[in-house]
Amino acid sequence: MSAPDYAIEAEGLEKVYAASGKMPEKRALKSIDLKVPRGQIFGLLGPNGAGKSTFINILAGLVTKTGGKAKIWGMDIDQHPRASRAAIGVVNQEITMDPFFTPEEALELQAGFYGVPKGERRTDEILEAVGLLDKRDAYVRQLSGGMKRRLMVAKALVHNPPVLILDEPTAGVDVELRRSLWQYVRRLHDAGTTIILTTHYLEEAEELCDQIAIVNHGEIIACEPTSQLLKRLDQRILRVTPREPLNAIPESLSHLDAKLLNSGDLEIAYRNSETGIGRLLEQVREAGVGVADLSTDQPNLEDVFVAMTSEPA
Ligand SMILES: Nc1ncnc2c1ncn2[C@@H]1O[C@H](COP(=O)(O)OP(=O)(O)OP(=O)(O)O)[C@@H](O)[C@H]1O
After folding, report:
1. Which residues belong to any copy of the ABC transporter domain (predicted)?
2. Which of 1, 72, 228, 254 has its CA 20 to 30 A from that of 280?
3. Residues 189 and 253 in one domain
4. CA 177 – ligand 1 centroid, Å
């Protein structure tokens, strides 16, 4: 089969967790439409409980969807459950592995589980790639948290899937190890693997992802190339304290995105690349506003994210 345009396609994907005990029914995914182009590093961002893991677990076959369709590598997960799952490697949030196996044994077992013939196994190559070759004979319980996480990634790679899904790959991993994991993710990407990662770290998404989808309350509220999302950072706020209190925004400033605050300050949103601060201040002065004080504010990706996800459901 020739490579599909999209590594993952979801259409109207729904998940309702049934009520249980005192927990009411929960609509965790609300008709999600999402396409992940082949060859990307794609970020799935969202606050706790947004539905990221539910989405991933449906793809992985760990959660049963209650509506909609999903395709992995062009294969419908209902029509081709086995073949579609063979096209992904999933690394979950929880570290689950038998403490009494060595990394080498863990990978061999996993390869056996996926039916990879002995002659086609790449155990050494994968251990080397995740920096665990020198730990091949150590017991898993002797590995550090970061090493265990890398072993989880290694296990997800034994069947050579074209799509790798990493759910919070660097949660609880220190900065240095995070960097080395990123490096490895980039190498896999360079070798042609499509990578989907969920993360709370905006820095991680910014650094790695070609495209970012933001999930909130079970819905996709933005899906844009990272560069476009970052362009929103171009927005600045100029706050002016006028010498004399203003009753209203002067007519000549009405074309600007300006607000009069209760404090009497004038707040003007502008794009740094379009209107320089000098030109803006000139316009304020030309409108007859004397400037007693001023400040500027620049949002970061965190602000953009918070602003997008803080609207009520
Ligand atoms: N097995 C389950 N039964 C009932 N509700 C569930 C179940 N699993 C998840 N949920 C609920 O579904 C919603 C989405 O959860 P999910 O784990 O997909 O979010 P998430 O975005 O991955 O969050 P996090 O970043 O904290 O991992 C949450 O409200 C959660 O409480």
Report:
1. 8-242
2. 228
3. no
4. 27
- CA nearest 134: which of 96, 100, 110, 104? 104
Domain finish residue from 230, 255, 278: 230
- Which residue blocks in the chain are alpha helix, DSSP H? 52-60, 81-86, 103-113, 123-129, 145-157, 175-190, 202-208, 226-231, 277-286, 301-309
Q: Are 175 and 11 in contact (CB under 8 A)?
A: no
Number of domains in the chain: 2
Q: Could you report the per-residue pLDDT of 237-289, keeping only the tens digit for each?
A: 899 999 988 889 999 998 999 999 988 899 998 887 778 888 899 999 999 99
Which atom belonging to ligand 1 lies closest to the Cα atom of 15?
12
**Token pair 């060859």: residue:** 39
CATH number of domain containing 279 = 3.30.70
Task: Indicate which atom in ligand 1 lies nearest the CA of residue 18.
Answer: 4
Average of per-residue pLDDT values in the chain: 87
Do residues 128 and 163 share a domain?
yes
Q: From CA 103, how far away is CA 108, in angstroms rounded?
A: 9
Q: Mapping DSSP to helix (H, G, I), strand (E, B) and coil, where does residue 26 land?
A: strand
> ipTM score of the complex?
0.96
Per-residue pLDDT reduced to its tens digit, 17-29: 999 988 899 999 9
CB 8 within 8 A of CB 163: yes
Q: Within this chain, do residues 259 and 212 fall inside the same structural domain, yes or no? A: no
Range of the domain at 302: 232-309
51 CA closest ligand 1 atom index: 18
| pLDDT at res. 191 | 87
Is the full-model pTM beyond 0.90?
no
User: Does the beta carbon of 199 lie inside 6 Å of ligand 1?
Assistant: no
Question: Which protein residue's CA is at the shortest distance from atom 24 of ligand 1?
Answer: 48
